[in-house]
Amino acid sequence: MTSYIPSITLPSQVFAQPAASILLPIALGTGIGFTVRPVDTERTYLALKQPPYRPPPYVFGPAWTVLYGLMGYSAYRAWTTGMASFNPETRELTKQGATLYTIQLALNLLWMPLFFGLKRPIEATVDIVALTGVTGYLTYIWGQVDVVAGWALVPYMGWLSFATYLTIGVGYLNDWNLADKERERPPGRKSTTKYVDEGSEKKAL
């Protein structure tokens, strides 16, 4: 069981204020996205061999904005409900969840630099598997504190499961090497090729 560790946990003021709780993950996630450079990220994403059911790039921004908002609302709801309880066990679960929440947020923010920035799919896979596990435990912990807080994390858990599938699938299909996958199209030539090896595979047939 994870204990409450104040030194690595976000300040209580973040959890206690709805605006701060909701906007913090949105702001951090957006900041990381722009740090990695959206244009380069999309170019790399489209250049990679992809498993079935991969979503188009424009889905990720709105989806993560909603999920970060729900994540922040869950944190606010669990903290304010749990810390107002007279039950010592509930208060302890609330604080344990705060530490887990901070850990999962850090793992979440680490994934994009690993996958798209450093192009390290193995490390990114380890990260997202750990992230999914921590978030699953957090959902269980905060679900005991407040049912609404637990359910608010369910869409996030679903998306993480899908993202884990995509991460492993992309890594496997690209031989766990994402470097130098992008190709420039010849000047003046239009192409419907979406993935870097699609054209060569069609020529080989």
Please tag this protein with its features.
disordered C terminus, single chain, mainly alpha, about 200 residues
What features would you describe in this structure?
The protein is mostly helical. Helix content is 71%, strand content 0%. The protein has nine helices and no strands. Helix 5 (88-117) runs antiparallel to helix 6 (121-145). The relative contact order is 0.15. The model is unreliable at 191-195 and 197-205 (pLDDT under 50).
Task: Produce a short descriptive summary.
The chain is an all-alpha fold and 205 residues long. It has helices at residues 12-16, 18-36, 38-47, 60-83, 88-117, 121-145, 147-152, 154-173, 198-204.
**Overall morphology:** elongated
Rg from Cα: 20 Å
Number of helices: 9
- Helical percentage: over 70%
Unreliable runs: 191-195, 197-205
Write the element-wise H/E pattern from the N-terminal end onward.
HHHHHHHHH
Overall SS class: mainly alpha
First and last CA, distance: 54 Å
Total beta-strand segments: 0
Largest sheet: none
Q: In percent terms, what proportion of residues is strand?
A: under 5%
Round the mean pLDDT to the nearest integer and report it.
88
